[in-house]
Specification:
Elements: H1 10-42, H2 47-63, H3 65-75, H4 78-96, H5 103-131, H6 136-172, H7 174-199, H8 217-239, H9 241-265, H10 268-291, H11 297-305, E1 309-312, E2 315-319, H12 328-349, H13 356-377, H14 388-416, H15 422-444, H16 456-483, H17 485-498, H18 506-516
Antiparallel strand pairs: 1-2
């Protein structure tokens, strides 16, 4: 909502939110780039445990915004909840910066990050929507810039924090580099908060209804108390694999139960759309299993079986840390998203557009290509090391697949789900995505390498075997997605024929989702 008449430009207000979002993503992705390596190299975790811990954490990070958005809308206010989340995130990164090998301490720090993320993420995005509420002509361009801020922050941090870790380790010893890098993540959040403090007046007229009232100290105390309990619960889930499995299975059953209940009790005019949404959500779950490999099996592959030097005809150009290869994902997203958004608009104008279901099938196909690139690269490895250039082209395929599947997920919910169920189903969609993050860690463990296996010639076939199998799995998903296209076409036609709402242009929804997907992770 807009509170009163805003005396400042919407652009100024929007930039205030975008800058704190940029710095928040800087902190988060800087931590993500290092966390699996930190557990394996610093804490001595085996691959299996590191993969599952981070995947469980990623699942919690996907689930938590569903609660944080409600707190912002109904309890504390959008701005206050966003700032509270940023403050909690800074505490989480500060805890990660403490030089200790205590695993429970790390789990607690990650639990703090989960809670902070849940409070911050949905409310930052909601503020952007409130700033441009009723101004459809500008909201698309606003989210384009917002989306770019997310990727700028993540790219910069994924390149910077691994370099800081390596530099400090070289200068002062292995103990301090990791924690110096995590400290930089904390500094990023604090810079964002400082910038917000300087520009906060630009947002005085925006927020949810609770923002217009004085802080309810009782509600604040309840939120803080429940946040503390959530930190403990998250740490327990991360510490104990059995608890994590129960959490994931329970969440999966809950999501399916929600879908089937809504389908069973829905009006006839709504049923076809809900069935279509269920089919595409299941496909999204499989996509995120593939996606999670970037921060698990592929990250460890870069550590053990990739030549970190970039060379052209024998001339050395630069050297990357293995963690820095993860920056290729947001770099490719920034390159490909405007091209893809333009292609959607062009296809729509010329009546040549594919359905969302067809784009999902194409997304699985390009992800399969990415896995086969890595699997096939093993044939050309030298002493167990593949070329660093291979990473660039594999990430290009992954990123295009991400835009085609994950980027269209939000458009799918908007298109097929009744407006009265939209918020509820969006939450279910992100819970399903979180479940698949954990399952992705389970899959990554098929390439788990024993601690005593350090020879690249021995580890290479472990990874390439997994990548080839995942490529085959992605091909199977492609054919399944193609096989259900006739069913999806019938469901879509039925949904349209029974819908009284205006038929929104799918390309506009898709383009908006491309810009929004990173901000929602």
């Amino acid at each position: 909502m807009t509170i009163g008449t805003a005396p400042v430009s919407k652009t100024h207000s929007f930039m205030t939110v975008s800058l704190i979002e940029l710095w928040e993503r800087f902190g988060y992705y800087g931590m993500q780039a290092l966390i699996v390596y930190f557990m394996v190299q610093r804490l001595g975790f085996d691959d299996s445990r590191a993969n599952l811990v981070w995947s469980a954490c990623a699942a919690l990070i996907y689930v938590s915004p569903a609660i944080g958005g409600w707190v912002g809308d109904k309890i504390l206010g959008t701005k206050r909840t966003m700032l509270l989340g940023a403050g909690i995130l800074s505490l989480g990164y500060a805890l990660m910066a403490v030089p200790t090998e205590n695993t429970w301490f790390m789990f607690s720090a990650l639990g703090v990050i989960v809670v902070g993320n849940g409070l911050f993420k949905p409310n930052a995005g909601n503020l952007v929507r409130k700033i441009y509420e009723g101004d459809d002509s500008k909201i698309d361009s606003a989210f384009t810039i917002y989306y770019m801020a997310v990727n700028v922050g993540s790219t910069f941090s994924m390149l910077l924090t691994p370099w800081i870790k390596d530099y400090v380790n070289a200068q002062y010893g292995n103990e301090f580099g990791w924690h110096a890098a995590f400290a930089v993540c904390c500094v990023g959040i604090l810079v964002g908060l400082g910038n917000y403090a300087l520009m906060r007046k630009s947002l005085v007229h925006y927020g949810s209804e609770p923002d217009t009232r004085p802080v309810n100290k009782k509600n604040l105390a309840i939120v803080l108390g429940l946040s503390a309990l959530s930190v403990v619960a998250s740490a327990i889930i991360l510490e104990y694999e059995a608890v994590a499995r129960v959490f994931v299975y329970a969440a999966g059953v809950a999501v399916l139960a929600i879908f089937f209940h809504l389908i069973r009790t829905s009006e006839t005019s709504e049923r076809a759309g809900l069935i279509a949404a269920l089919i595409l959500t299941v496909q999204t779950v499989f996509f995120f299993i593939f996606y999670q490999q970037m921060s698990t099996s592929l990250a460890l592959f870069a550590l053990r079986n990739v030549d970190w030097d970039f060379q052209v005809f024998g001339t050395h150009l630069w050297t990357w840390s293995p963690a820095q290869f993860q920056a290729l994902n947001p770099l490719w997203i920034m390159v490909l998203s405007p091209v893809l958004a333009w292609s959607y608009s062009w296809a729509g104008r010329n009546d040549k557009d594919f359905s969302i279901a067809a784009k999902f099938a194409l997304g699985f196909a390009v992800v399969a290509i990415g896995f086969f690139i890595y699997g096939f690269a093993g044939q050309f490895a030298v002493n167990g090391k593949t070329s660093s250039w291979i990473m660039i082209w594999g990430y290009a395929s992954y990123s295009l697949g991400e835009l085609l599947v994950s980027g269209l997920g939000l458009a799918m919910i908007a298109r097929y789900v009744p407006a009265r169920m939209g918020g509820f189903m969006m939450g279910a969609y992100f819970v399903a995505s979180g479940i698949s993050q954990y399952l992705g860690g389970v899959v990554a463990n098929f390439a788990s390498v024993p601690k005593d296996l350090v020879d690249p010639l021995q580890t290479l076939p472990v990874y390439t075997s997994l990548f080839n199998k995942l490529g085959i799995a992605a091909v199977v998903c492609t054919f399944i997605a193609l096989a259900v296209l006739p069913l999806m076409r019938r469901l879509t036609e039925t949904h349209h024929s029974h819908s009284n709402a205006a038929d929104h242009d799918i390309n506009e929804s898709a383009a908006a989702s491309l810009r929004d997907v990173k901000a929602e992770q």
